[in-house]
Design goal:
Strand content: 15-25%
Radius of gyration: 21 Å
Shape: globular
Number of domains: 2
Number of strands: 10
Order of helices and strands: EHEEEEEEEEHHEHHHHHHHH
Number of helices: 11
Distance between the termini: 31 Å
Oligomer: single chain
């Protein structure tokens, strides 16, 4: 069964629940709205930074949900989103998006949320969006899609949306936002820097996508793309004992050449590079959550030598793994 709500009714459900909850936040620039028990469970957390609004979505609905939004003329937006889990507004687990534009007339938009799995995602909105975007890409416009060039140059008629893959580097930054260990002004600076890092990674991905679309990039069949995603899942599920490239190719029924070239095209890194990044990311999560010491973290991600693991970790994060070893963080709120 699918529930359909107008945005006003949807927002009031969250607001009513918020009024019933006693929520104490250390920082006055943060707001947390709890999900109504009628709707599901979880929260949406919003943090106001300098010219940036950071939103963390962590909730699950009981039934599939459609929310109808009515955007007035002149409404402008620039939003980056990174989905770690769930299906919402046409995006699924492991996807990111960027969307921008201005409503020239009243527009109706329907946001669809699936009840199949929890939503865990981070959204970043910029204001004033054109100035912010122009500061990021000035002097480098030819590397980007035509729509982005037109938007930066002042064409209000341009609306654009692009969906990409959350890379290991992006996922790591999202996790660092979710597990931010700081408070007060230090927290503000840290979160701002991580938001800008995510934006930089997404903008660079846009440039790489534009380059591949204008070059002789290998054309992948939909079936090949599915097999490449299957290869990624095999890697993630076997960090402690990953298959060789030839074994991986056999498991997903692709030849090695197609696997190597296709993997780079889809995930913007090599198979080995992806394995390394995921290993380091997993180790980082184990350490900062207090679930493992350095030796245990090394073993969990497939390193027999703690020395080799520490060297790889230090090269990736700039610090020894013991520096990240701490007691378990509290929940995101």
């Amino acid at each position: 069964m699918t529930i359909t709500l107008f945005s006003k009714d949807y927002e009031e459900l969250w607001q009513d629940t918020c009024n019933l909850q006693q929520i104490t936040l250390a920082d006055s620039n943060e707001a947390v709205r709890m999900c109504s028990q009628q709707l599901g469970f979880g929260y949406i957390r919003t943090i106001d930074l300098r010219d940036i609004e950071l939103s963390i979505f962590n909730y699950q609905v009981h039934e599939d949900l459609n929310v109808i939004f009515d955007f007035p003329p002149g409404d402008s937006w620039l939003e980056f989103g990174f989905h770690l889990s769930g299906k919402r507004s046409g995006k699924r687990t492991g996807q990111n998006f960027v969307t921008w534009g201005t409503s020239l007339e009243s527009e109706i938009w329907v946001s669809e949320t699936s009840a199949d799995e929890p939503i865990l995602k981070v959204d970043i909105s910029l204001e004033p969006y054109r100035k912010q975007l122009k500061d990021f890409v000035t002097g480098d416009l030819n590397r980007f899609p035509t729509e982005l060039q037109q938007l930066v140059e002042g064409d209000d008629s341009v609306c654009y949306g692009e969906i990409g893959t959350v890379t290991p580097a992006m996922r790591l930054v999202v996790e660092q936002i979710l597990y931010c260990p700081y408070q007060g002004m230090t927290k503000q600076i840290y979160l701002e820097s991580k938001c800008l890092e995510l934006i930089a990674l997404k903008i660079e991905q846009l440039a790489e996508t534009q380059l591949s679309s204008t070059s002789d990039a290998m054309r992948l069949k939909l079936d090949d793309i599915d097999r490449i995603y299957h290869a990624k899942n095999i890697i993630v599920n076997n960090l402690d004992n990953p298959p060789s490239l030839s074994e991986l190719a056999k498991q997903v029924e692709l030849n090695e050449c197609t696997l190597k070239r296709g993997f780079r095209q889809v995930f913007h890194t090599t198979v080995f590079g992806y394995l390394h990044q995921i290993r380091m990311e997993q180790a980082y999560q184990l350490l900062v959550a207090g679930n493992a010491n350095v030796t245990q973290a090394a073993k969990a991600v497939g390193y027999a030598s703690t020395t080799s693991f520490s060297a790889a970790f230090r090269k990736k994060f700039g610090k020894n793994p013991c520096a990240y070893r701490r007691s378990r963080f509290t929940e995101y709120i």
